[in-house]
Amino acid sequence: MSDSPELLVLEQFLPFQLNRISESVSQNFAQHYRREYGMTRPEWRTLAVLGQYGVLTSTQICHYSTMHKTKVSRAVQSLANRGWLVRERDASDRRLEYLHLTTKGRRNYGKLVKLAREFEKELQNALTPSAYAKVQEALYLLEALELHRTP
User: Fold this and answer.
1) pLDDT tens digits, residue range 36-60?
2) Is residue 42 a part of any domain in this protein?
3) Which of 3, 19, 48, 89 has the most CB atoms around its CB within 10 Å?
4) Which residues have C-beta within 8 Å of that of residue 98, sequence separation ≥ 6?
C-alpha cells in the first residue's frame, strides 16, 4: 500500500482546462481591443454589459460581469473620463448611481461588437461546425449546472 497521494493531472482536470482556455481566449481577444481602443479587460466587460443591458448600477455590472467591485469602479471611472458613459444619481436615494452609455459610448460599443464578432468567427472557423456545436452545447450544460450549485 502506497503512502503517496493519487496524482491530479491538471491538463485532464476539467476546471483547470476550462480556466486555462478561458484565460487564453480572453487574453487573445484583449490584444484586439487593447490595440484598437487602449482598453483593459474590466473596461471592455463593463462596456459590453452596459451595451447589452442598458442602464445599470455598478452592483449590477459586478453581477453580470462577475468582476469585483473595485475593478468595476475603476473601469467606470475610466469610461466616464473617455466620455463613453455617464453617471446619474437616483433622486430619491442618493446612494444609488445609474450608469449608461453616451452617444459616443454606444458608437464605440457598436464598433467593439463588430470586433468581437470577427474574433468569435475566427474561433468558430477553427472548428468544424459539428465540433463548434458540441462546444456550445457543453458550455451551456456546464453553465446551467453551475448556476444551480450553492457556494
Assistant:
1) 999 999 999 999 999 999 999 999 9
2) yes
3) 48
4) 55, 56, 57, 87, 88, 89, 90
Q: Give me the CATH number covering residue 35.
A: 1.10.10.10
Q: Which three cell numbers stand for residue 149?
A: 450549485
Closest alpha carbon to 28 in 144, 126, 105? 126
Output DSSP code: residue 6. Answer: P
Would you say how long the chain is, in residues?
A: 151
Indicate whether 77 belongs to any domain.
Answer: yes
pLDDT over 60 (residue 11): yes
Reported pTM: 0.87
Alpha helices in the chain (DSSP H): 14-37, 41-53, 58-65, 69-82, 103-125, 129-147
Q: Evaluate the CA torsion angle 101, 105, 110, 115 in order and state its sign.
A: negative
Written as one letter, the residue type at 9 is V
The rounded distance, in Å, linking the Cα atoms of 76 and 72 is 6
Residue-wise pLDDT tens digits, 66-87 = 999 999 999 999 999 999 999 9
